[in-house]
Design brief:
The complex is a heterohexamer of chains A (449), B (332), C (192), D (219), E (298) and F (216).
Chain A lengths: L27 E3 L5 E5 L9 E2 L6 E2 L4 E4 L8 E2 L4 E10 L5 E9 L20 H10 L12 H5 L9 E5 L9 H8 L1 H15 L3 E7 L3 H14 L3 E6 L8 H9 L14 E5 H13 L5 E7 L7 E6 L4 H7 L8 E5 L6 E2 L13 E6 L16 H5 L6 H9 L3 H6 L10 H5 L6 H22 L1
Parallel strand pairs in A: 1-14, 9-10, 9-12, 10-11, 13-17
Antiparallel strand pairs in A: 2-8, 3-5, 4-7, 5-6, 7-8, 13-14, 15-16, 15-17
Chain C lengths: L1 H13 L10 H6 L4 H29 L7 H23 L1 H6 L4 H5 L2 H12 L4 H29 L11 H15 L10
Helix pairs in contact in C: 1-8, 3-4, 3-7, 3-8, 4-7, 7-8, 8-9
Chain E lengths: L2 H28 L6 H9 L13 H10 L12 H12 L8 E5 L12 E3 L6 H5 L17 H5 L5 E3 L5 E3 L9 H5 L5 E5 L4 E3 L7 H7 L9 H5 L5 E4 L2 E4 L20 E3 L27 H4 L1
Antiparallel strand pairs in E: 1-5, 3-4, 6-9, 7-8
Helix pairs in contact in E: 2-3
The chains are: A alpha/beta (449), B mainly alpha (332), C mainly alpha (192), D mainly alpha (219), E alpha+beta (298), F alpha+beta (216).
The structure holds flavin mononucleotide (3 copies), riboflavin (RBF), iron/sulfur cluster (SF4) (4 copies) and FE2/S2 (inorganic) cluster.
């Protein structure tokens, strides 16, 4: 079985229209600097960072402004030269008010980042490497913003045979990973080299959906000349191919047991952009102070791929992209399948923002909901092999325990079921509700015990 | 402080498949029209009137007894399917008032009482048909032969409401299945195939039914497991008995193409709402229907058992769903 | 053998105690909220029916030949006391079994299906083996009906049943539809 | 000390509750087997109701009289013996004097013994109350039972046979709905009766709540 | 007279009676199993119809469930309401008594005080449902969404939604079961002893105008209540006034007097309900309060 | 509420009380039942006999009295009173003591359950002279036409048992050994046909033999 002809995939899943043509051939541009940056302390999963700057303090671009708040937490760096204006509550992409560091950019600074000489990573011990990654502020750029160093630390007793780079970008509209792979293939390969030095996996896979032939081609070329055990796997275009469980199934034909992590099947999954950022940190010392964001949708004048400093207000991004075509829009962070809808555009771009999708409100059809007709389409769509129809009916009657019995906690909210449901039942939404309640219940039981 | 303009928020995903429940239902309605036309062609105007009255019965009931948005309920087309299917499984000379009443019972007892579309456990059309069969067993087993006249109306059709039909012109003939059962005469498969036989309106032409079934399968409106498992079960079981004694037991092709098996298989057993949802459950469901069809046809008191078989398996569907849970990802 | 099969099928499907003979309806409508309960009740039913078949055979053969008209009262005394005794015994000997099945026994003692079984099998002149097969068929039929109804009723918990219909009215209509479906078994194996 | 009036009131209540508020068939869903099995004609329903009345009233009297004499462990058996005795008596009497009705009711006369209603009343009422009250309760319950059976029987006979108490109602050409005298018809008839009652109750409740809201609004 | 037949008949029945009573008597002695005596008592109070309408297999099983506290006596649809009450009372007598706790809502920003930031479009119109979509449409991200999940979930009908789209707990009906605490996506309920009357009905951590721009009754952390209250009772922390209930005995209504927004309140009247236990019911009550005909048919 | 406490706390009843209660109950019930039974027995017996007599007179026209005969070991013997009913037939005689025919009861599964009938049979001519359904659970209005339907009943006015009894569709009867079925109730009709055929097969020889031995 040669890699070239194998087109792997997982079972079930859906085929939404892609809309990637809007941005997939646009080069990544640097977003200009703006006046103010808002840096929420909790951009990642885990404990919030702890600020180490005071109001009025001057900071340099790339300077650390907050320490990790624990092991599952990362440092935070200033994206600009400027002054700390305040540390206060500010609204973020979750709709919640979060403690944030507000930095006034120094209008007279050139905002040039002075690269450090490359860190000789070969000399680092594994713990030093992990600590270094934590200090870089690196989180997974695939969407969840999970601290990267935690993933890279292979716990005692576990082995990691495979490293898997997730370049699927299965969400419609998004092209940021695609562009990163095409424009920075060397960073990706170098990132792999660094990670491989510490993890020592047998094999490194880069999974890319076959709607990105240019990325596949260029990475295959680089990989073959790298001397690393890299295989670039071309995957069938299917949503949610990029979910790590699906990726593992597609490539290794293995399932991650329920409630377990990829490491339990000896695999480490990371987004390609995260790996590119890793390489940047070790080569130039640049922490995670900006990221590539796909700005797209039918309501933005100039869809683009932008490298945006973290903390930039979305309003500024809109302005840079030529403004909105209509006032009546809906802003989604991420893709249209899993993206988070926003109540306002005055929130900052954060580490987890992979895309900004502006959709004309009128284009979102009002959908008549019907009762579940048990057509089974959701069952055939659910990549987790759940029974969304049954779950949906249980949710309607608030039968949370029964939902738990029906494995609602295994749902990763990909939205495939809602996508196919001809009755337009808000399936994922009600699963989120159920999961929320069940988690809360479990937490209160724990605290009682 | 000026307030920012209100935006609109709604839940993800923001892309949706194009299929909607009403679209699915209407597609099924259109796929049924050739059957209605064929019924008219074979049995005359009376046949069409039977379908029309049962449809009126169901639509009017749907409209007047639905709580909530009754126009929406009527527009979605599912009541229309019920009415047409009910009409198609009635005999041609059936009194129109009974057909109307069947429609009322089908929707009233089979659907509205349960809370409308998607909530019912039993197939509404078959609830209506079972009620008619139990209420008026004579009328529903009085078969007139196909006569070919375009505008012929059977005198049975015109009975006064609540009154008996006097079948003056009814040359009551036996359907192939009752000939099989009571006289051990097997009709030739070619007749069964083309539809030149007495029987219910929609049962007669196997060719049309097969075409419609294939259409529904290709459009993925019905689940392929149901027809495959029903037809296989019937074919295999009847083949075994035919092989044991071909004089007493009918051949598999006779079993497959006679009576309401194809109509039941493609349109009624596959009713999305009343069939199981799990893949394994669908196999069991189909197997159960096939098994009961053969059981009732070969050894039961009645010549035809498709309706009862489907209703029985409808009743078992919640159990089937419960005991054939899908094993989620990560549990294998 | 054929005769026994016919007795079994007839009691199980054709003349299903619950759905076509209207026996044991109170638990049928009452104890079918949960599938597990219904199933266990069904099992307990089979058990008591077999006891009943044995007891009625004993009574018929050795006691009632002297006074057949005391049949009803003797049956009822014997069934009620035997079941009460068995209940006590199970409770003592196997509390788990009691939890699973025993607690259903009092509900069944005073149930038409049990006495119906005794009377019908006497009327039909069944012997010992036939009586037990009849009891198994009838008990199986009752279990089948209980389980089917319970399955549907559990399902109705997630359905939008209108308030007006919820409860007994709907149960009766479900029972009616299932009973119509069972009419399809009429005449099964009768003409062969 | 209770006054005469309140005793009378309570007595009337004991009797009336069986008719409607605690109606054994419509409300408590007891004694379903006879309620559905022998109600395919009104006359059978009536006969069954009366036979049950006889048994219920007589055994209630006896159980109430003996309520302090029967030990707890054997009370069910003792009640059953009492009930079965009366049932056998009525069985003989019917066979002797009304052979046709006896034939129509068939085994269901014997099955009165196990009618859940009867044993239920002994357990819950007769064994805990004085004879007078027990009689009233039994009479009320039986009346309610008979009433319910009659309702079902009338519906089923009219629809299923086109007749009432054997008299043809709609002429010879009426097409009877045979299903109504078959088993499913029994379920349907009671089901729809309950539905109708629910509907009526809901209507009445809606009206009464509407009224209370109005009065609340008054100053 | 056919004496022969008479004697046989009487002999058979007497014999059967004796035989089985002996068996049962022996079994009663040999096979006795201890059980909670209250079960017998409750069973006696039940109708004994063994009808199964309660969903349990027989009256005794039901009685066991009731005694264990797993079932509500009201589930018995056959029993007269007065009987149900008697059972409840019988078991209630033995229930332990502590200070009654009730659920309190920590938000006063109804639809007239706290405005929305967005329109929510969707068919899942519940607080939980809205809250997973961008945290809900309300500008104040701590505030009540007003769709009444709590009222829906309360088994005791203790919560009503006010015209202002805020939940109002009836302390008399509330049993402190905690269901509302669990369901509320904004965690606005806490269970507290009825004696705690000084309550800050706000969870917003914003200060000053930021808070009051979003909701006119928000706590803006001005600190006046803390100044007016006995020392230590109220503290302003993280933009919110917080009552230290360890000092509840010091609490006075005066602390609420100068609050500019009315976020802190002193519960009185219907909302307070400080009685520790229910008043004694009149003896021999047979009327049927709040009895709902519909439950018969469930 | 205080009422609860008023319920007397029963003390554990002794075994003697239990045994005495049930024994006494059995005794009393025995007394009552036997008295009612003795009182009603003759009436019930009379009712039954009357019903049987009516049936026999109907299916054997001209009968004035009859005699019950039981088949034991292949031969018929006169019996008194009730006995194993499956093997009893009734010989009917007219006023002059001539045999009017034999009334034979029988049962066979129909559409629902066993159909019990009694029919008159004339051994000399080999014809069936009448049929009365005693008990059937066939569908009212459909299968129960076998009881009331005049057309169907007229099948049995003179139905030849030779060579065999055949059931044919309505309107297709053209020889005296055929029974015309009821439309819509073929199953019940066939059951009757089958019943008659099986029953005649069983009884023909014993009756013929008996008549040969006892030429009256
Ligand atoms: C439904 C779903 C779709 C996803 N799609 C992608 C994707 O297209 N690309 C991606 O990199 N990660 C995707 N993820 C996230 C991956 O599961 C995984 O968390 C990520 O690849 C890990 O890399 P990171 O930690 O570097 O982000 C998806 C997750 C889910 C639940
Ligand atoms: C009439 C018909 C019969 C089919 N039979 C089978 C079959 O026997 N086995 C099968 O795997 N797919 C069968 N298919 C294809 C399925 O519809 C479906 O495409 C396939 O199971 C894909 O499953 P997956 O999406 O889980 O990979 C059949 C399709 C049709 C229309
Ligand atoms: C509710 C119902 C009751 C029936 N009852 C009888 C019956 O009592 N006797 C009978 O022979 N057939 C009965 N049938 C069977 C049908 O009428 C069957 O089709 C008929 O016996 C076939 O006869 P045909 O060939 O004359 O139509 C019943 C059918 C149904 C649906
Ligand atoms: C493929 C398909 C088959 C259907 N078959 C039936 C049917 O047999 N009887 C019926 O009443 N409705 C049928 N319907 C319509 C609809 O699903 C049905 O009325 C629901 O049971 C109503 O809740 C069908 C719909 C579809 C899409
Ligand atoms: S896709 Fe929608 S309508 Fe179909 S079964 Fe799933 S939830 Fe029901
Ligand atoms: S959202 Fe959950 S239930 Fe729906 S398809 Fe995705 S994993 Fe399955
Ligand atoms: S559940 Fe919470 S958010 Fe919803 S109405 Fe009640 S208090 Fe408000
Ligand atoms: S849900 Fe429970 S805690 Fe909340 S108000 Fe109701 S009774 Fe009180
Ligand atoms: S009367 Fe209650 S079970 Fe039969």
């Amino acid at each position: 079985m040669t890699a070239d002809f194998k087109i792997s995939t997982f079972k079930h899943g859906v085929h939404p229209e892609e809309f990637k043509h809007l941005t997939d051939s646009r080069l990544i541009e640097q977003m200009p600097f703006v006046d103010e940056y808002v840096l929420p302390l909790g951009q990642h999963i885990g404990a919030p960072s702890i600020p180490i700057v005071r109001k009025g303090q001057k900071v340099r671009r790339g300077e650390k402004i907050a320490d990790p708040g624990g092991f599952v937490s990362v440092a935070l760096h200033s994206p600009v030269d400027g002054i700390v204006k305040a540390i206060e509550l500010a609204e973020t992409n979750t709709g919640q008010m979060v403690q944030s560091i507000r930095i006034q950019a120094d209008p007279y600074s050139s905002q040039i980042f002075v690269p450090h000489p490359p860190t000789p990573y070969e000399d680092l011990s594994i713990d030093e490497f992990i600590r270094s990654v934590q200090q870089s502020g690196l989180v997974g750029l695939g969407g969840a913003a999970f601290p990267a160093h935690v993933k890279f630390k292979i716990p005692q007793g576990k082995t990691c045979k495979y490293i898997m780079l997730n370049g699927c970008e299965c969400e419609p509209f998004l092209t940021s990973d695609h562009r990163t792979m095409v424009e920075k293939p060397d960073d990706v390969i170098h990132g792999i080299r660094i990670l491989q030095h510490f993890v020592k996996a047998e094999k490194v896979f880069i999974g890319i959906e076959d709607n990105k032939p240019d990325a596949i081609k260029v990475l295959r070329e680089k990989a073959s000349s790298s001397g690393l055990p890299i295989e670039v796997v071309s995957l069938k275009v299917k949503y949610p191919q990029g979910a790590e469980k699906m990726l593992i199934t597609a490539i290794l034909n293995k399932e991650v047991p329920s409630g377990k992590l990829p490491l339990d099947v000896e695999t480490l999954v990371s987004n390609v952009s995260s790996i590119a950022a890793l390489s940047e940190w070790f080569q130039t010392g640049k922490p995670l102070i900006d990221r590539v964001v796909t700005v797209t949708g039918n309501a933005i004048r100039q869809p683009s791929n932008l490298r945006v400093p973290i903390g930039t207000s979305m309003n500024e991004v809109i302005r840079y992209c030529g403004g909105l075509l209509t006032q009546n829009i809906r802003l989604l962070l991420g893709g249209p399948m899993m993206g988070l809808v926003q109540r306002s555009t005055t929130i900052p771009v954060v580490k987890g923002t992979s895309g900004m999708l502006f959709i004309e409100e009128e284009k979102i059809a009002d959908m008549d909901a019907y009762s579940c007709i048990r057509c089974g389409r959701c069952v055939d769509a659910c990549p987790m092999f759940l029974n969304p129809s049954a779950l949906g009916m249980l949710a309607k009657k608030a039968l949370w325990e029964d939902m738990e019995e029906n494995h609602v906690m295994d749902c990763f909210e990909c939205g495939s079921c809602s996508f196919v449901c001809p009755s337009h039942i808000p399936l994922v939404q009600s699963f989120r509700v159920a999961k929320g309640i069940l988690k809360k219940r479990k937490a209160s039981e724990l605290s009682k015990a | 402080m000026s307030r920012p303009a209100m935006t609109t928020v709604s839940t993800s995903p923001y892309l949706h498949d194009t299929a909607t429940t009403p679209k699915i239902m209407w597609e099924v309605v259109f796929s049924l029209l050739p059957m209605v036309a064929a019924a008219w062609y074979f049995f005359g105007l009376g046949a069409f009137m039977v379908v029309f009255f049962s449809t009126m019965g169901s639509m009017l009931t749907e409209f007047f007894f639905t709580s909530g948005d009754r126009w929406k309920a009527v527009r979605d087309g599912s009541g229309l399917i019920t009415g047409i299917l009910l009409g198609l499984c009635l005999p041609p000379g059936f009194p129109l008032w009974m057909a109307f009443m069947g429609g009322v019972v089908a929707i009233g007892m089979g659907k509205v009482i349960w809370g409308g579309l998607g909530q019912n456990v039993f197939n509404p059309a078959l609830v209506g048909r079972a009620f008619l069969q139990a209420a008026f067993p004579t009328a529903i087993t009085t078969w007139s032969p196909p006569d070919g006249g375009w505008f012929s109306l059977n005198s049975g059709n015109a009975a006064w409401p609540f009154m008996q039909a006097d079948h003056v012109d009814a040359i009551s003939t036996a359907t192939p299945l009752s000939q099989m059962k009571f006289e051990h005469v097997f009709a030739p498969t070619s007749d069964l195939f083309l539809g030149n036989i007495p029987g219910s309106l929609g049962e007669t032409s196997s060719v049309l039914l097969l075409l419609a079934g294939i259409y529904l399968l290709v459009r993925k409106i019905i689940n392929w497991r149901i027809p495959v498992s029903i037809l296989t079960t019937v074919a295999v079981m009847s083949a075994i008995f035919w092989w044991i004694d071909p004089k007493v037991y009918p051949s598999p092709d006779f079993m497959l193409f006679s009576g309401g098996l194809l109509l039941g298989t493609f349109y009624m057993a596959t009713d999305l709402v009343t069939s199981p949802i799990t893949p394994k459950g669908l196999w069991w469901y189909g197997f159960g229907i096939g098994f009961f069809v053969v059981l009732i046809r070969l050894w039961g008191g009645l010549p035809e058992g498709v309706m009862y078989a489907i209703l029985l398996m409808n009743a078992a569907t919640p159990l089937i769903n419960k005991f054939t849970r899908i094993k989620p990802y990560g549990y294998r | 053998m054929n005769e026994l099969i016919w007795i079994f099928i007839s009691a199980l499907l054709v003349n299903n105690f619950t759905l076509s003979l209207f026996l044991g309806l109170c638990p049928f409508l009452g104890v079918t909220q949960r599938l597990q309960t219904a199933f266990r009740l069904g099992l307990a039913n089979i058990f008591v029916m077999v006891i009943t078949a044995i007891a009625s055979y004993v009574l018929n053969t050795w006691v009632l030949i002297y006074a057949p008209y005391l049949r009803l009262i003797s049956f009822i005394i014997v069934i009620a006391s035997t079941v009460q005794f068995v209940e006590m015994a199970i409770k003592k000997l196997s509390p788990e079994l009691f939890k699973a099945l025993g607690i259903y026994l009092p509900l069944i003692t005073t149930n038409c299906a049990i006495l119906g079984l005794a009377l019908f099998s006497t009327n039909k002149g069944y012997g010992f083996v036939e009586g037990i097969v009849y009891a198994l068929g009838a008990g199986g039929g009752v279990t089948l009906a209980l389980v089917l109804l319970a399955g549907v009723r559990e399902e109705t918990k997630v359905l939008d049943i209108p308030k007006l219909v919820q409860g007994t009215a709907l149960n009766l209509i479900i029972a009616g539809i299932v009973s119509m479906a069972f009419m399809g078994f009429a005449g099964l194996f009768a003409s062969h | 000390m209770k006054t005469e009036e309140s005793i009378n009131g309570q007595a009337a209540q004991e009797f009336l509750k069986g008719l409607w508020k605690e109606n054994p068939v419509f409300v408590a869903v007891l004694g379903m087997c006879p309620a559905l099995a022998v109600t395919n004609t009104a006359i059978n329903a009536l006969a069954m109701g009366l036979a049950t009345t006889f048994v219920l009233v007589s055994s209630s009297i006896l159980v109430s009289l003996l309520r302090n004499a029967i030990p707890k462990q054997v009370r069910i058996t003792a009640y059953i013996v009492i009930i079965a005795t009366f049932v056998t008596v009525i069985d003989f009497l019917l066979a002797a004097f009304f052979p046709d009705i006896h034939k129509a009711l068939g085994a269901f006369i014997a099955l009165i013994v196990v009618n859940c209603l009867i044993l239920g009343r002994q357990e819950s009422f007769a064994s805990k109350n004085r004879v007078g009250m027990a009689i009233l309760d039994a009479a009320g319950m039986s009346a309610g039972f008979t009433f319910a059976l009659l309702c079902i029987g009338i519906i089923r006979e009219i629809l299923g046979n086109g007749s009432l108490f054997g008299m043809s109602l709609f002429g010879a050409h009426f097409e009877p709905w045979i299903v109504m005298i078959l088993p499913p018809g029994g379920f349907f008839a009671l089901g729809f009766l309950l539905l109708t009652f629910n509907w009526a109750l809901q209507k009445r409740k809606a009206r009464s709540t509407a009224r209370t809201v109005e009065t609340e609004r008054l100053p | 007279m056919p004496w022969n037949e008479i004697i046989i008949a009487i002999a058979i029945l007497t014999g059967l009676g004796l035989l089985f009573s002996v068996i049962l008597a022996v079994a009663n002695i040999k096979l006795k199993v201890y059980e909670d005596p209250r079960i017998d008592r409750v069973e006696e109070l039940l109708p004994g119809a063994n009808c199964g309408a309660c969903g349990m297999p027989g009256c005794r099983a039901f009685a066991e469930g009731v005694v264990k506290g797993e079932l509500n006596p009201g589930k018995c649809t056959v029993s007269a309401p007065s009987g149900i009450e008697r059972i409840a009372d019988y078991l209630g007598v033995e229930a332990s008594q502590e200070e009654k706790r009730v659920a309190r809502v920590l938000c006063a920003g109804g639809k007239n005080e706290a405005h929305n930031r967005a329109h929510y479009r969707g068919t899942l119109s519940t607080c939980r449902g809205e809250s997973v979509v961008a945290g809900g449409p309300k500008d104040c991200s701590w505030g009540c969404l007003g769709l009444g999940d709590c009222a829906e979930v309360c088994d005791f009908d203790a919560i009503l939604m006010s015209e202002d789209a805020l939940p109002v707990v009836d302390p008399e009906k509330c049993t402190a079961c905690g269901d509302c605490v669990e369901i509320c996506p904004k965690d606005l309920f806490t269970l507290m002893p009825v004696g705690q009357r000084l309550i800050v009905q706000c969870k917003s951590l914003l200060e000053g105008d930021l808070a009051t721009d979003r909701c006119s009754v928000a706590c803006n952390a001005c600190g006046r209540c803390a100044a007016d209250a006995p020392p230590g009772l109220i503290e302003i922390r993280d933009g919110l006034a917080r009552v230290n209930y360890d000092l509840n005995h010091l609490a006075i209504p005066d602390a609420t007097k100068r609050c500019p927004t009315g976020a802190i309140v002193w519960l009185e009247g219907e909302q307070q309900f400080a009685l520790a236990s229910e008043p004694e019911l009149p003896l021999g009550r047979v009327d049927e309060p709040n009895y709902d005909q519909d439950t018969y048919y469930q | 509420m205080k009422e609860v406490d008023e319920i007397p706390q029963e003390k554990e009843p002794g075994s003697a009380a239990m045994i005495a209660t049930l024994g006494l109950a059995g005794f009393l019930s025995g007394v009552i039942l036997v008295s009612v039974f003795l009182y009603t027995r003759p009436i019930i017996a009379e009712n039954k006999a009357q019903a049987l007599r009516a049936a026999i007179f109907e299916i054997l026209p001209g009968t004035e009295h009859y005699e019950a005969m039981e088949l034991t070991d292949g031969t018929l013997k006169v019996v008194e009173g009730s006995s194993d009913e499956e093997n009893v037939v009734y010989f009917g005689y007219d006023t002059e003591g001539r045999l009017t025919g034999v009334a034979i009861p029988g049962a066979e599964p129909g559409y629902q359950d066993l159909i019990h009938v009694i029919y008159g049979y004339r051994p000399e001519e080999g014809v069936i002279t009448g049929l009365k359904v005693l008990e059937s659970k066939e569908t009212p209005g459909l299968g129960d036409k076998i009881i009331k339907d005049a057309d169907f009943q007229s099948n049995f006015d003179a139905l030849k048992v030779e060579p065999t009894i055949e059931v044919v569709k309505k309107g297709e009867k053209n020889s005296p050994n055929e029974v015309e079925a009821i439309t819509g109730a073929t199953i019940s009709s066939k059951a009757i046909g089958r019943l008659l055929q099986l029953s005649v097969e069983k009884w023909k020889t014993p009756i013929d033999e008996y008549l040969k031995g006892d030429p009256k």
